[in-house]
Design goal:
Elements lengths: L10 E5 L3 H13 L3 E5 L2 H11 L3 E5 L7 H8 L7 E5 L4 H10 L3 E4 L4 H15 L6 H5 E4 L2 E4 L4 E4 L2 E3 L3 H12 L4 E2 L1 H9 L8 H14 L9 E4 L3 E4 L2
Helix pairs in contact: 2-3, 7-8, 7-9
Length: 236
């Protein structure tokens, strides 16, 4: 069979705990010419995705270990890979939760294989060659700030300034989501991780430290502002 012209050498990570469906998905993707990696658990998906850096991920919502929502949320912190969420739960709330977490597309089971393959091709076309977005994935620019993810280096107006590791991760998260309000709980989940057992006060302390380095008047911040009763917003 002639391999699909869309992305014949792309690597697809299939994260599915149902063995029969996992086999069916991998079989059809390989017939289309894709390289396929399969795992059955959410924690394994995190390890493999970060190590192998696939071009696209098919991610089941209900998984042992770490569920699909958490996998998607955690991967979005350091990978820009397209993600298609797969689930037997077809309610609107589940679709919205998956997409809000960072999934690029959503398919409810049972789905047609032709439709799934078409969506895979479409997402890979939009993503383009992996080499094209590499700079964008590694370096985030927000106003006068430049954050290099690989080097953990922060610059303002071209001049490097020191950030502690968690300060850098927090600023990177805000810079990637300018103009959006995040609660302390959301920030803890995204930056510190779902298994962090500290409290919201941790976020307040790190925000205060960032303001001391970013704001002309830390007591009256204009870039990293508090939204009363809601959380924090970064204006870039």
């Amino acid at each position: 069979m002639v391999a699909s012209a869309a992305a014949p050498t792309a690597t697809v990570l299939v994260v599915e705990d149902e063995e029969a469906l996992r086999f069916t998905l991998s079989h059809n993707l390989r017939r289309e010419g894709y390289d396929v990696i399969t795992v059955a658990r959410g924690d394994d998906a995190l390890t493999v995705a970060r190590d192998r850096k696939p071009d696209l991920i098919l991610l089941d919502l209900m998984l042992p270990g770490v569920d699909g929502i958490q996998v998607c949320r955690l991967l979005r912190r350091d990978l820009q890979v397209p993600i298609i969420m797969l689930t037997a739960l077809g309610g609107e709330g589940d679709r919205v939760a998956g997409l809000d977490t960072g999934a690029d597309d959503y398919l409810a089971k049972p789905f047609g294989m032709k439709e799934l393959l078409a969506r895979v091709r479409a997402l890979l076309r939009r993503a383009g060659p992996r080499t094209l977005p590499a700079f964008a994935a590694n370096v985030v620019v927000s106003g006068d700030l430049t954050l290099d993810r690989d080097r953990h280096e922060a610059r303002r107006d071209g001049r490097a300034f020191h950030l502690k590791p968690k300060e850098f991760e927090l600023l990177l998260f805000f810079a990637e989501h300018p103009g959006r309000v995040f609660s302390r709980e959301q920030i803890l989940d995204e930056v510190w991780g779902y298994d962090f057992d500290g409290g919201p006060r941790t976020v307040d302390v790190h925000v205060r430290w960032l303001r001391q380095k970013l704001e002309a008047e830390p007591a009256e911040p204009v870039r990293l502002r508090t939204v009363r009763g809601a959380g924090y917003i970064f204006e870039g």
